[in-house]
Structure formats: C-alpha cells, structure tokens
Amino acid sequence: MKSARSFMAVVCTILMVLILGACSNSSSNEKTSIKLAEVTRSIFYAPLYVALENGYFEEEGLEVDLTTTWGGDKTMTSLVSDSSDIALVGSETSIYVHSQGANDPVINFAQLTQKDGTFLVSKKAHDNFSWNDLKESNFLGQRKGGMPQMVGEYVLKQNGIDPHQDLNLSQNIDFGNIPSAFQTGDYEYVQLFEPTASKFEKQGVGHVLASFGEASGKVPYTVFMAKQSFLEDNSETAEKFTRAIYKAQQWVESHKGKEVAEIIQPYFEDIELDIIDESVERYKNSEAYALDPVLDEEEWNNLKDIMDEAGELPEDVKHETLVNTEIAENIINE
Asked: What is the residue range of the signal peptide feature (predicted)?
C-alpha cells in the first residue's frame, strides 16, 4: 500500500512537471501581433521583406500583419484611426499630422531608407549627361507635395534649374499611370522608382541618367512610425520590431543584389528576378537603404530644407519633437 502511494506520488509529480512545462512552452510560444501598414509595395523597402522572409520578427516573438495602403494619406489615416499599429511612410507625413494639432503625435522611431528612391530617366541616351540638358524639355514629374517631387525640384534647383520656369513640367498624372504616360506621351524625361527604371532600360524604352537620391543627400525618406501612446504602452514591442529591422538592414548590406532578390521575390511575383536584382543593386550603390534605424538630426533638417524649398513645410518642427532615436540607438549598441 505504501509503495502504491509512493508510486502515485511520483506519477503526480511527473504530471505536474509536464503540465507546468506545457504551460511554460505555451506562454513562450505566444506572439505579439503587429498591424503594419506600408505606403506602397516597393523594392525600395527590401529590408522589410527580408525581415519577414528571414524570420527576424518571429525570432523576436512578433507576428507582423502587413497591409499595403497605397498612399501617404491613406497610410496615416490607418495609423491615427488605430487600424494599424505601425506605419511605413515618408517622414513628411508626421510633420503634416503634427501641424494639424494632433493630441497623440506620430513619432518616427526606425528609419528604413535614407535617400530618395527615384531616378532620372530619358527617352534618349546621353553620352555626357548634364543637368542643363533638361532645360526647356518636357518633364514628367511626381505628385505635387509628395517627397519624390519635392526632392526632384530640390535637386534641379541645386543644379541651377527652376523646374517651373526652365521646364515644361507636368504634375497632373496619377502615380500609377506615370510610366505609361511617359511611354505614350511626348515627355522627354521622367522621375521613376525601381523596378520601372530598370524595366525601361531593358526594354529600350528609357535610359537611366542619374539618381535623385545621390544628388539630394540623406533624408528620412521612409520611416517606421507609430503614435506616441503606442510607443509608451508597447516599448518592448517597439524595441523587438526595431531589432528585427536592424538585423535585416545588416543582412541586405552584406549580401549581393541577387541574394536579396531571391529572398524578396515572393513580394514581386510579376517581376523577373534579374530586374529585382538590378533594382536592388542600384539602390545599394546609391546608398538608399539605411544601414541602421537611427534617424539623426542632420537628416531631419535636410528633410525640412527640402520641404521648405518646395513651399510645403507647414511649420518648423524640431527633431526631438517627432523623432525617437533612443529605441534604435539602444538596439545598435547592444
């Protein structure tokens, strides 16, 4: 009888250990869900897709639900209405929201791209291109008030060209229709993102002449941002998210374009692998991808100068008002 009681005691002990172990494993396997809104689907955002495909978010215990919201206004609406937790969009949008008197400001906390991602494309080849070649040409620009157009105008002015006086400038074409409008219209030059620029070169439709990103310098072109309340209430989650992005940034920097292309191809199934490869290499060569998530004050001030030059800066917002560098700095210093 005594041995039976001893046996039952051992069995109960084993069962308790198994139950506690199962509970512990269940708890450790629980993931924090993040609703992430990206402003568009772009090879320009390659490190984000690398973070997803290489499992860096999963390693941090995060489950990221990615939605493409197609436009800065829609992306910010998603964020401020709590339809998303984090948004990937241009930093200028946080300034626009702040100028409207937001009680819960949108804070930039992790930078993804550090330069403009557009390229100057011409219908004709140029052996010795000069920015002066653009004068009096038919130029198809980007949407007024958006970062591509503001950077484009900034670069032109830096090279002695007044875009509204020296060019026949068109800004009335929707973003999605710009490539086809350039192909079919009488435009001589256009400002394009990848992979369209590389596609046009391959098809003989256009020739890439210059990078607006290289010409303009570093700006917080695309940044992960969240409402201040979210960052305060979910500081650990924000750190985990930023850590995953930093891992991806380092991976992209240390791997060739083709390797990056192979990882992110599921996000661009209608684009040939060699075009993705060429696009990634072009962005790497122009240093468009940020090497770490820190958005420094110099970049922020450069952004404001570009907006001010374009007449689109609603107010002078200080770096510390809308930028949190502490999260990113802690991650890279680990």
From this structure: 1-22
Fold type of domain 118-216: D-Maltodextrin-Binding Protein; domain 2 (3.40.190)
Read off the pLDDT band of 299 (50, 70, 90): very high
Asked if residues 129 and 210 have their Cβ atoms less than 8 Å apart, the reply is yes
3-state SS string for 152-200: HHHHHHHCCCCCCCCCEEECCCCHHHHHHHHHHCCCCEEEEECCHHHHH
In this prediction, residue 11 carries a pLDDT of 37
Spatial CB neighbours of 197, under 8 Å, sequence gap ≥ 6? 119, 121, 206, 208, 279, 282
For the chain, the structural domain boundaries read: 33-115+219-332, 118-216
Tokens of 141: 């620009």
3-state class of 82 per DSSP?
Answer: coil
Cα distance between residue 151 and residue 69, in whole Å: 22
Whether CATH 3.40.190.10 fits 33-115+219-332? yes
Question: Average pLDDT in the 210-224 region?
Answer: 96
Beta strands in 244-283 (DSSP E): none
- The DSSP H or E segment spanning 62 is strand 62-68
CB atoms within 10 A of CB 267: 19
The letter for the amino acid at 121 is V
pLDDT tens sequence across 108-144 = 999 999 999 999 999 999 989 999 999 999 999 998 8
Which run of H or E residues covers position 238?
helix 235-254
What is the percentage of the chain residues whose pLDDT exceeds 90?
A: 87
Check if the beta carbon of residue 49 is closer than 8 Å to that of residue 289: no
The two tokens of residue 267 are: 């996000």
* Total-model pTM: 0.89
Q: How confident is the model at residue 226 (pLDDT cuts 50, 70, 90)?
A: very high
**Confidence at residue 146, expressed as pLDDT on a 0 to 100 scale:** 85
